[in-house]
Amino acid sequence: MRRLLTLLLAAATLMLHTTTTEAATLNIIPEPAYVDLAAEGTYLVTGKTHIIVNDELWNEAELFATEMMPHFNLKKPMKCVKRGKGIKVRTDSCIHEEGYEMTVSEEGILIIGGSAKGVFYGLQTLRQLIVVGNGVVPCCFIADEPTFAYRGVHLDVARHFFSVEDVKRYIDILAAHKVNRLHWHLTDDQGWRIEIKRYPELTTKGSMRSETLIGHGLRPEFWDGKPYGGYYTQDDIRDVVEYAAQRHIVIIPEIEMPGHAQAALHALPWLGCHEQIVDVWTTWGVTPEVMCAGKETTYEFLENVLAEVIELFPSELIHIGGDECPKERWKECEHCQAMMKAQGLENEEELQGYLVARIEKYLNAHGRKMIGWDEILDGGVTPTATVMSWRGIEGGIYAAKRGNNVVMTPMSLCYFNFYQTESRKGEGLHIGGHIPFEKVYAWDPYAGLDDDARKYIIGVQCNMWSEYIKDIETLEVMLLPRLAAMSEVQWSVDRRNDTTIREKMNTLRGFYDAMGWHYAPYYFDGRK
Length: 528
Ligand code: TNX
Known about the structure:
Blueprint: H1 2-16, E1 34-36, E2 42-44, E3 50-52, H2 58-67, H3 69-72, E4 80-81, E5 86-91, E6 100-105, E7 108-113, H4 116-132, E8 136-138, E9 140-144, E10 150-156, H5 164-176, E11 181-185, E12 187-188, E13 191-192, H6 201-204, E14 208-209, E15 228-229, H7 234-246, E16 250-257, H8 262-267, H9 296-312, E17 317-321, H10 328-331, H11 334-343, H12 348-365, E18 369-373, E19 386-389, H13 394-402, E20 406-408, H14 411-414, H15 437-441, H16 451-454, E21 457-462, H17 472-479, H18 482-492, H19 501-515, H20 522-525
Parallel strand pairs: 3-4, 3-5, 5-7, 10-11, 10-21, 11-16, 16-17, 17-18, 18-19, 19-20, 20-21
Antiparallel strand pairs: 1-9, 2-8, 6-7, 6-9, 12-13, 14-15
Helix pairs in contact: 5-7, 9-12, 11-12
This protein binds ligand TNX.
């Protein structure tokens, strides 16, 4: 970091002393912190180019060597060796942990990362250059590091299920955009998708619903009449967590509580207040059927589930949902009312606050930290919870001013399940809203915050709710190219540039085509 600062200062001084400054760009997304294109010449990377690497960085080198196979039409990955010429990678702890410096000369390429993470991101930058330049990489020097430590993308697999293979493809796309967190929304009213050994009913019963709402509104003809389900075994989960970790993406699991839990209540009716059987929900929205916050058995259940979740996910942050929990059932429930009395709680909001605080204690006692949607603020939040601000930015601002860590993900800017054009023509049926590429790109996540509060904004995230997203192609079209805009907000917020972004996006489009990723055409054909 210190090194990059010195470099930027030197560059600024140089610019003061030159009369003509041409903004050189390599069309990389997200934009690197510093690019020097002054040197002439190129270096040609082919399928025969060696990657020179020591044991510590073998994972990163081999992954790159494998990723390049389709581009060079190779049957085997590019060769990784310990000595020689080609693409050399190493680390230097003077550089920011996620940063890197890349020097391309006519003799070869050198990437020095602050750690294996930095090397990985350097190689992602190089991959873009190689693919769009067909192996011809211009001589240059790049020094790079991210703005935000938390660069998240969310995926809802409860409303529609995505296979292990689909999730890995999604992870590949995230990694290429230098995203480092996948928020995996694993449970909701319409399906419980993670195997929990202690409660097999959660998946044997809770992962299947009788049909799905496929229209807008609640008319009978809008349901499809087809049973729908799916879940991940614990082996599947371990496989995905490992796959993501190799790409330096931490998976944050979300187990929804006490609301958005009707599928769990279907499987285990004693989790509810009235204990009557409810179905795995076939409708979208907010259901009154929520977990009972009065019975000790609910707390036992949550701790037992989290114990298995903690075993499966190394993430320090564990997401406990906390959003959209109607309190009707609690008002009529003798257990909830007794708990409120015993704990001296004024109202049902405070009862939710009690549940959340108790779960946070459990997570902390097991070496983890809690993150939840901004409703966790309503019942009086502890100073140690991380808040995900979705109902707007106000919750995030309030939390940051109190000194809670915040991830900004306001619905008006970060809901990638929303339409991308005003006319909605050709987009298929989606939940609503309107978030074009330009709106994401123009977002300032620090708006409304003074310097003190700013440092609590640990990152930003876009969310992918899957009520109307049923397959991986649609998922990709909703994600791309808006993720490119989001990645510039996450990685390079102060380096965004309205005059160069269009050309950069045209270059990135070539990269998407080469990768075979599906993307929406609207940004490219000018439709907002
Ligand atoms: C709100 S964001 C929800 C989700 C829905 C989404 C639809 C949040 C914490 N809750 O349950 O899927 O809107 O856009």
